[in-house]
């Protein structure tokens, strides 16, 4: 019995609780199959401490737990799904779609803005590539506006990601490694946005399921064709594009697309020149072949062709010769996905890939990098005889087997193995002059360290196996430990790479993400497709090479800023070890080279006595990269304004030959603004603005007397027709690498789009201006020599080059 003296306070307390208590809130709804729209029975709905099940009609009622603003829905043979609940709760009927656990590994509906389970992962919808000003329908140009990603040049598509080189980026399309993701010398990407569902770039810290690259991972998911016949056609500044799709026999669908340049056809009416051109054809078929089973077949074939003749009658009399290029890509893949019971899935991918690339140059060109100080250019400037031929072949037959197992609600285990039977080879012949304007002699741009003749091929097996567990012990934390093993029979190296990721949900709208791991890359000619340098990977050299290695540490904070808006801030630290670089000349080789110079004593300073870099490989490079990225995105489909802002601050350097110097794509600051604004139902405007500090480069330190090779092989001081000494540019020794920095880069692209039928119309047209500010961006500085009337020797000048000029563009898209 409660004593009388305590009764009144207790009564008052109970009365206050009853008066202020709120009636419970009940949520009602229906759970249906997302494919068939049929009700799902015995689905379990959880809301914090509350739990309910659906009845025969898929309906449920559950009491709302104010401490948990989301519903978690599970059902046998369906993917687990989480649905957010917006406060305050409104008494409305919910309809929740569940999708069969047969054709995807995970689905997590936590925010309208797509978010990844790992840091540094950024999804890009295919439509965003079309809508971005300056993209030229090329995903790589859109990716270059993301934080930590830098385009290595305006006319190409290669990317440098957080201190990594372009050859350290992995591109995977529908589970198949794509060795050459470019077309038309990189001006165009290999992927047709009309047939792609989405792209996702992970700038570092990616999971154990992918390997053999040190820097980044780009996943490309092709979409399945619609069963009702439809199609589209488009014309842009680079090519024409036709897509058709429809239903196939049984329960299948197909999609076929073709792209081709057209300017070369038009130019053919006015000139006999074979301008750079390409065409590609893609075919994708998909069938449901039974309960929980899906079969996909993909085929791709592309060709590139150039044959340009430089006639002295049409140009400078010193410029004659021809340039030809021929490239081809062929890919066939077969993919089978199958549900293994209610909690496991298998995906098997078999593919055959072949890439060929041939370039031949036989030309005589006037050169401003060598000249005397004579006022008449035709006498003072020299000529370069460029005779160069290179053939590159990569053939890859691969099998990839993936398994996903969900033994409990908390664990999702992914494991698998991939095997690549690789055949690759290089045939190289250089009998002309070497490029004196590259500071690193192993440069693919004709450096003196390249061999005169080479015919090398490699055949071997590269493989990897992995396992990782996505463990969610509570609703606020998930961890993903993983382990990957990679091996290659080409160099006999085996590496073990532990990896880890974690997500900590601070509340319903913000989270922390962490990732760490070891990443390795095997040597191979297939990497040289994107490399800046050439290495002789013949068997006598490659057997002594180890896998290149890199460690990644990534930490980030994410917060949802309302509907379809996300803010992400990340910091990263990466190390690079055992990087493959060219060996220095041996003392014997250096002495033999220097002995060929027959220079008088007063000109001995012009003789390159220091050891030079060769194309013989060694694991002699090290480096590091660190920085902070910020990313703000708003991508609501029907929003009047959408796009993203990105900022990156970073540092990257390399240590080679006992010298530390800036990484060649070290970019200290970069800001990008990408936006589309809908003016009305018919008109919209898009802009892309980029502002960034310049890359490092090797600046000239002075002049040296050029050398001419005599019939007996001796090298004597070069002289012009008047007998005056000819000079060349001196870039110094190894400790002078990357000693300068290019001016800042700034570009604004604008696009105006008109949809005559509104947002639901079948066609649109747009006009676009690339580099609307007409800035002469110094993507590269061309170092040249010019007449100096006030001195005895020519003067050094640096001209900005390789940047886009002011370039008007247009496009038309029609759907039928």
Describe this structure in words.
With 816 residues, the chain is mainly β. The chain has 2 domains: 26-98, Carboxypeptidase-like, regulatory domain (Immunoglobulin-like, Sandwich), CATH 2.60.40; 222-815, Maltoporin, Chain A (Beta Barrel), CATH 2.40.170.20. It contains 7 helices and 47 strands. The chain has a 22-stranded antiparallel barrel. The radius of gyration is 31 Å and the shape is globular.
In short:
With 816 residues, this protein is mainly β. The protein has 7 helices and 47 strands. It is globular.
CA-based gyration radius: 31 Å
Query: What CATH architecture of the largest domain do you see?
Result: Beta Barrel
Helix/sheet category? mainly beta
How many strand segments? 47
- Uncertain parts: 1-22, 102-116
The CATH topology of the largest domain is what? Answer: Maltoporin, Chain A
Name the shape in a single word: globular
Distance between the termini: 83 Å
Helix content: under 10%
């Amino acid at each position: 019995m409660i004593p009388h003296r305590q009764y009144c306070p207790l009564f008052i307390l109970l009365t206050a609780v009853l008066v202020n208590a709120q009636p419970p809130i009940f949520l009602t709804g229906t759970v249906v199959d997302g494919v068939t729209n049929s009700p799902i029975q015995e689905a379990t709905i959880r809301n914090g401490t509350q739990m309910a099940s659906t009845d025969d009609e898929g309906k449920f009622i559950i009491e709302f737990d104010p401490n948990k603003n989301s519903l978690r829905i599970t059902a046998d043979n369906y993917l687990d799904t989480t649905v957010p609940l917006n406060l305050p709760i409104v008494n409305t009927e919910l309809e929740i779609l569940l999708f069969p656990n047969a054709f995807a590994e995970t689905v997590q509906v936590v925010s309208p803005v797509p978010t990844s389970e790992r840091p540094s992962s950024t999804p890009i919808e295919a439509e965003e590539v079309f809508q971005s000003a300056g993209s030229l329908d090329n995903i790589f140009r859109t990716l270059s506006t993301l934080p930590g990603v830098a385009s290595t040049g305006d006319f190409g598509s290669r990317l440098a990601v957080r201190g990594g080189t372009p050859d350290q980026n992995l591109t995977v399309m529908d589970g198949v490694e794509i060795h050459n993701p470019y077309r038309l010398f990189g001006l165009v990407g290999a992927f047709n946005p009309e047939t792609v569902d989405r792209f996702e770039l992970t700038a570092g810290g990616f999971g154990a399921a992918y390997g053999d690259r040190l820097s980044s991972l780009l996943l490309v998911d092709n979409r399945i064709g619609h069963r009702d016949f439809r199609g589209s056609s488009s014309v842009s500044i680079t090519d024409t594009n036709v897509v058709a799709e429809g239903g196939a026999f049984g329960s299948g669908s197909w999609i076929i697309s073709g792209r081709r340049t057209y300017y070369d056809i038009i130019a053919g009416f006015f000139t006999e020149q074979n301008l750079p051109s390409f065409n590609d054809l893609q075919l994708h078929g998909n069938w449901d072949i039974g309960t929980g089973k899906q079969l996909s077949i993909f085929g791709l074939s592309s060709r590139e062709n150039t044959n340009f003749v430089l006639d002295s009658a049409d140009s400078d009399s010193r410029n004659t010769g021809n340039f030809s290029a021929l490239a081809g890509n062929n890919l066939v893949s077969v993919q089978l996905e199958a549900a293994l019971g209610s909690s496991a899935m298998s995906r098997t991918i078999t593919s055959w890939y072949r890439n060929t690339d041939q370039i031949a140059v036989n030309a005589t060109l006037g050169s401003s990098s060598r000249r005397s100080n004579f006022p008449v250019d035709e006498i003072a400037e020299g000529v370069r005889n460029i005779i160069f031929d290179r053939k590159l072949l990569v053939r890859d037959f691969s099998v990839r087997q993936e398994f996903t197992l969900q033994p409990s609600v908390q664990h999702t285990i992914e494991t698998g193995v991939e095997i690549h039977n690789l055949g690759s080879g290089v045939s190289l012949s250089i009998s002309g002059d070497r490029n004196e304007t590259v500071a690193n002699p192993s440069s693919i741009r004709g450096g003196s360290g390249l061999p005169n003749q080479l015919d090398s091929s490699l055949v071997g097996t590269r493989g990897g196996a992995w396992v990782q567990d996505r463990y969610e012990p509570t609703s606020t934390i998930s961890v993903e430990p993983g382990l990957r093993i990679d091996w290659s029979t080409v160099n006999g190296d085996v590496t073990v790479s532990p990896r880890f990721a974690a997500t900590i949900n601070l509340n319903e709208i913000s989270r922390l993400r962490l990732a760490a791991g070891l990443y390795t890359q095997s040597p191979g000619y297939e990497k040289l497709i994107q490399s800046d340098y050439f290495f002789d990977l013949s068997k006598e050299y490659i057997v002594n090479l180890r896998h290149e290695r890199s460690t990644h540490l990534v930490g980030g904070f994410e917060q949802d800023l309302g509907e379809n808006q996300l803010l992400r801030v990340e910091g990263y630290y990466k190390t690079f070890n055992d990087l493959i670089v060219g060996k220095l000349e041996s003392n014997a080789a250096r002495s033999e080279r220097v002995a060929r110079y027959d220079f008088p004593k007063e000109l001995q300073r012009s003789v390159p006595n220091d050891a030079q870099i060769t194309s013989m490989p060694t694991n002699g490079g090290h480096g590091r990269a660190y920085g902070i990225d910020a990313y703000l995105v708003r991508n609501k489909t029907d929003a009047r304004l959408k796009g993203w802002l990105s900022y990156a601050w970073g540092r990257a350097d390399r240590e080679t030959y006992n010298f530390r110097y800036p990484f060649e794509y070290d970019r200290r600051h970069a800001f990008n603004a990408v936006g589309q604004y809908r003016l009305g139902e018919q008109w919209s405007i898009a802009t892309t603005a980029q502002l960034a500090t310049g890359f490092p480069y090797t600046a000239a330190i002075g002049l040296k007397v050029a050398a001419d090779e005599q019939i007996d092989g001796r090298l004597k001081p070069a002289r012009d027709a008047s007998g005056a000494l000819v000079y060349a540019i001196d870039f110094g020794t190894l400790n002078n690498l990357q000693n300068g920095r290019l001016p800042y880069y700034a570009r604004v692209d604008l696009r105006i789009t008109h949809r005559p039928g509104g947002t639901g119309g079948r066609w649109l047209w747009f006009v676009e201006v690339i580099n609307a500010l007409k800035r002469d961006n110094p993507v590269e500085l061309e170092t040249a020599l010019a007449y100096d009337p006030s001195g005895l020797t020519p003067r050094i000048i640096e001209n900005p080059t390789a940047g886009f000029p002011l370039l008007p563009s247009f496009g038309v898209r029609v759907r039928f």
